[in-house]
Write a structure and sequence with these properties.
Radius of gyration: 15 Å
Helix content: 10-25%
Oligomer: single chain
Number of helices: 4
């Protein structure tokens, strides 16, 4: 498992524009700007290492990414939901979590550095999101979240990030 200090060190080295806004021995949150298609997006990246006694899944341990500014646009006429490839955030619906990879396929692991995986995936997600705003077609691949998947969403029950 990668420690929070190792995650912070890797982020500082690879993504110096991302600043730690909160951290502890088991939790870290960064804010930073990504501009994959010349449009700047302020994003929040949160990560929490579960305690040994917690009964958690990979869903609970993976990093969570949200777009803070500008807020993601919603298109009610889009047939598969308002925004593709996001998980609902019941505590703040305006800030859904980006669906960056398939936890079922174990594309991310607690041994992975967020700086080497998650930030790149978030930039790629934003690139395809910008295209979707124009075309209403998601060209980024992946599997769209369904209502059944939503029940298994990323949100941890007791530890918000």
């Amino acid at each position: 498992m990668v420690t929070i200090d190792q995650q912070i060190e890797a982020m500082a080295e690879r993504w110096p524009g991302f600043k730690v806004v909160e951290s502890s021995a088991s939790h870290v949150e960064w804010h930073g700007t990504l501009a994959p298609d010349k449009h700047e997006h302020l994003v929040r990246v949160g990560h929490r290492i579960p305690m040994v006694l917690e009964n958690v899944t990979l869903h609970d341990a993976q990093p969570r990414v949200q777009v803070l500014k500008p807020l993601l646009e919603r298109h009610p006429d889009y047939e598969e939901g308002p925004i593709p490839h996001v998980y609902r955030n019941s505590s703040n619906p305006e800030l859904p979590y980006l669906c960056l990879f398939s936890p079922a396929l174990r594309e991310w692991d607690i041994k992975d550095l967020i700086a080497h995986t998650t930030i790149h995936w978030a930039a790629q997600w934003l690139y395809f999101y910008e295209g979707w705003l124009v075309t209403k077609k998601w060209l980024g691949g992946g599997r769209h979240v369904t209502p059944n998947d939503e029940e298994k969403r990323l949100e941890p029950a007791a530890a918000p990030i």
